[in-house]
Amino acid sequence: MAGIEGFCWWDAPGGVLPSARLDDERFRALADLLTSDIRTDRAGLLEALMLVEWAREGRAGIDEWQGDSSVAEFRPDGVLITDLGPDPKTEQYSLDEVHEALVRYWQFIFPGTGQRQSALEAWARGFERENPGGENPRHPCLAHLPL
Q1: Which letter does DSSP use for residue 23 in this model?
Q2: What's the pTM?
Q3: Which one in 10, 47, 52, 145 has a CA-CA gap of 20 to 30 Å to 100?
Q4: Cβ distance 115 to 147 under 8 Å?
């Protein structure tokens, strides 16, 4: 993917953390959202993918997605990511750019089929808890998400 060359694990004090290698600084905010906010949170990753699909469908009024270091606004014309640092900057990405980055990150964080299936099952349980009485959750990316 242009912008994000790839992902790797970084041996940080206190544990191993995901990190991104960039080939275009414009993608810093997106990479930070993935590696600093989502990290290895399978529900957060699947929620972000769902928000991209909702934006593609033209849904208006999608709630902002807020992490520890950034806020993302998913809209039909793209995704605005604002870092929450002392000098906030906002960058806009196309829905395709964000979707591709999320899918690549999904493959990095969950390299095995069993891990991916487990992540989807946990997401569905969480979705059902948050939306009781709703229809059986089927993730909107299921048809094209690598399992």
Answers
A1: S
A2: 0.90
A3: 10
A4: no
